[in-house]
Design goal:
Number of helices: 5
Mean pLDDT: 83
Largest sheet: 3 strands, mixed
Distance between the termini: 57 Å
Number of strands: 5
Oligomer: single chain
Shape: elongated
Order of helices and strands: HHHEEHEEHE
Low-confidence stretches: none
Structural class: alpha+beta
Radius of gyration: 28 Å
């Protein structure tokens, strides 16, 4: 679902950007002396985009101001919805654990994140670990960030994380699978003096 929202977000922003760029470029070109087509709303460099007659044409109608306010309200609400959707953190609050009796149990997402991060931090050569659950509560996914000591081979750290920490978390929560995205970084260290 998040990938669909991300795609829609990019497409809408791209289209709005293209429309604004085309309109701004066309107005700038006409202002610099390019002759516009006959259907264009802007006739020349000394013309205004909306004349006084065009701006006040519907002002006397009873439906005009309620319609303007309704359209502006809808636009503001859509912009606020978009902003909240972009800024909202997609953290999984709880994980559904199959107890075998058909009822199931709920495990707090932060608890599973904490245990997974602590377990990963205990791995050899891992200076710090952070886990973040996403997805649905019956099909969670995890993002793990590892800060590795300088002497650790990243392939070994990734193998140990998958074989130990992720497997332990998946088995303890009775999950069929636990897809993971892992980001590795090396801790900074002082240069060693060679003698």
């Amino acid at each position: 679902m998040r990938a669909v929202l991300r795609t829609v977000d990019r497409v809408v922003l791209g289209l709005v950007g293209l429309v604004l760029l085309a309109l701004g470029g066309a107005v700038l070109a006409v202002g610099l002396g390019v002759s516009p087509p006959s259907w264009w709303i802007h006739d020349g460099p000394h013309d205004v985009l909306l004349s006084t007659a065009e701006r006040t044409h519907w002002r006397g109608e009873a439906w005009w101001w309620p319609a303007v306010l309704a359209v502006l309200t809808v636009l503001v609400l859509l912009a606020l919805w978009w902003l909240v959707a972009v800024l909202r953190r997609h953290r999984l609050a709880e994980v559904l654990v199959d107890t075998g009796d058909g009822a199931g149990a709920l495990l707090r997402g932060r608890a599973l994140e904490g245990v997974l991060a602590d377990d990963a931090t205990r791995l050899d050569g891992v200076a710090h670990a952070h886990a973040h659950l996403t997805g649905r509560r019956d099909a969670p996914e995890v993002r793990v960030r590892l800060l590795l000591e300088p002497h650790v081979d990243p392939a070994d750290a990734l193998h140990h994380l998958a074989a130990e920490s992720l497997t332990h978390a998946r088995d303890s929560a009775a999950l069929g699978s636990l897809p993971a995205e892992v980001r590795l970084r090396t801790a900074r260290h002082k240069a060693e003096r060679v003698s």
